[in-house]
Specification:
Elements (H helix, E strand, L loop, with lengths): L5 E2 H8 L3 H9 L7 E2 L6 E3 L3 H13 L4 H10 L2 H41 L5 E6 L2 E5 L16 H10 L9 E4 L1 H5 L8 E6 L8 E3 L2 E9 L6 H13 L3 E12 L11 E9 L1
Antiparallel strand pairs: 1-3, 2-3, 4-9, 5-7, 5-8, 6-7, 6-10, 9-11, 10-11
């Protein structure tokens, strides 16, 4: 056996590929040993095969299938390398975008839950809020009532998926100014997600400005008490409703076992 050849254990150590995986690659035609001892079956590799092993590992980590790697290695050329790696780079870019979207959703969940924990007991206050990027679902039917169940949520999720929006955010409900004034807050016009400008285009603007913001512990759909308190607060402080209401659960079933301890927040745009 040639001196420059490496035993499989030595090649495994240098390449970072386990002995078991090297045998797997050999059996599947991806990386054959440079030589095999016919008397004992020992596999031997050359130093130059380390680069090939590294490329296989990198392509696998990039998500390329074994069959595609095998096809490339059997037909490899400079042109094919550029084409193959170019396609993998495009795929990785899409994966990076997706991972950033998932990360943003996780951060949103953490921030919202922390906000719920820090808010303490239920309260009502006036708050200056920044402009936010809101993704609205399909317009809800005029006769839709939340007490009938969230039967139109599948339509909202389908629209999110059609727009490549990561699921998992807290679903908010938007109630129009008209329905607030008519005390028909049981008739929301849209479901929505709050999204950043960083990973998504601007869909719909929740305006910057002053909002009366109230929180209360309540199960899903039990918004009447908080709306009554908000309207009373608005009247007592000579405020005027100029925009929509945005309902969200800061603490919901993802974080809390007891539905009576879900924390509902409603923000209504106002002017002094």
């Amino acid at each position: 056996m040639e001196k420059e050849l490496l035993k499989i254990s030595e090649f495994s150590k240098l390449s970072g590929i386990s002995r078991k995986l090297l045998i797997f690659y050999d059996n599947h035609g991806l990386l054959h040993p440079h030589a095999t001892d016919q008397t004992n079956g020992y596999r031997y590799y050359s130093y130059r095969q380390i680069d090939t092993a590294s490329v296989i590992v990198s392509l696998r980590e990039a998500g390329m299938s074994l069959s595609d790697i095998k096809n490339y290695l059997s037909k490899k050329s400079p042109e094919m390398l550029i084409s193959t790696l170019g396609k993998q780079e495009e795929m990785l870019e899409q994966q990076i975008i997706k991972l950033h979207q998932i990360q943003e959703m996780i951060q949103s969940r953490i921030q919202q839950t922390q906000k719920g924990l820090e808010s303490g007991k239920p309260s009502i206050k006036v708050d200056d809020q920044k402009e936010e990027n809101i993704f609205l679902g399909p317009h809800l039917p005029a006769d839709y009532d939340l007490t009938d169940g969230w039967t139109h949520l599948p339509d909202f999720y389908a629209k999110c998926q059609a727009e490549n929006i990561q699921l998992g955010y807290t679903v908010g409900t938007l109630v129009s100014k008209k329905n607030i004034l008519n005390q028909r807050w049981d008739k929301p016009s849209h479901y929505y997600y709050r999204l950043s400008h960083k990973n998504y285009p601007l869909y719909h603007v929740k305006p910057a400005g002053k909002y009366v913001v109230g929180t209360i512990y309540a199960d899903y759909g039990e918004t009447d008490e908080l709306y009554q308190k908000l309207l009373q607060y608005i009247e007592q402080n000579n405020l005027e409703i100029i925009g929509n209401a945005y309902e969200e659960y800061l603490i919901d079933e993802i974080a809390e076992k007891n539905s009576a301890d879900y924390l509902l927040q409603i923000a209504i745009q106002i002017i002094n």
